């Protein structure tokens, strides 16, 4: 969900950026982080807890908790809440502690 209209604030149109989430093409916008683009696209579960595989999503949104760790372009443990979105990124839900491919 994105706020498109607001009674006080204005939002300038930004460049669309296409990227991949678990192989599916998704559109975000310049200035998004990976996690904010996914959240706007309806993806709320970003990772799972390591031991009990409970769903994890946005929590601190400032890079302090690791709740949003994902595999980005083959690199595990990327904190997607503070990582700027780039075109054609390959973003995948991480399993466990993650593995370097
Ligand atoms: S949500 Fe806490 S590090 Fe990303």
Structure description:
The protein has 101 residues and is mainly beta. The chain has a single domain (16-92), classed as Roll (Ubiquitin-like (UB roll)), CATH 3.10.20. It contains 1 helix and 7 strands; from the N terminus they run ββαβββββ. The strands form 2 sheets. Strands 2-1-7-5-6 form a 5-stranded mixed β-sheet, with helices on one face. A hairpin with a 6-residue loop joins strand 3 (47-48) and strand 4 (55-56). The longest helix has 7 residues, at 34-40. It is globular. The chain starts with 15 loop residues before the first strand and ends in a 9-residue tail after the last strand. The site of FE2/S2 (inorganic) cluster has 12 residues, from loops.
CATH superfamily: 2Fe-2S iron-sulphur cluster binding domain, sarcosine oxidase, alpha subunit, N-terminal domain
Overall pLDDT: 93
**Helices and strands: which structural class?**
mainly beta
Query: CA-to-CA gap between the ends?
Result: 32 Å
Strand order of the largest sheet: 2-1-7-5-6
Assembly type: single chain
Largest sheet: 5 strands, mixed
Can you count the helices?
Answer: 1
- N-to-C order of helices and strands: EEHEEEEE
What is the CATH T-level topology? Ubiquitin-like (UB roll)
Radius of gyration: 14 Å
Based on DSSP secondary structure assignment, what is the total number of beta strands? 7
Which keywords apply here?
5-stranded mixed beta sheet; 7% helix; 101 residues; single chain; mainly beta; binds FE2/S2 (inorganic) cluster
């Amino acid at each position: 969900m994105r706020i498109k209209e607001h009674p006080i604030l204005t939002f300038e149109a930004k460049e669309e950026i296409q990227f991949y989430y678990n192989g599916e093409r998704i559109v975000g916008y310049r200035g998004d982080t990976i996690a904010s683009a996914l959240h706007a696209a309806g993806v709320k579960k970003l990772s799972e807890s390591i031991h009990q595989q409970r769903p994890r999503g946005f929590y601190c949104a400032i890079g302090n908790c690791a709740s949003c760790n994902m595999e980005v372009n083959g690199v595990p443990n990327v904190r997607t809440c503070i990582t700027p979105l780039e075109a054609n990124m390959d973003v995948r839900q991480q399993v466990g502690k993650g593995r370097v491919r």
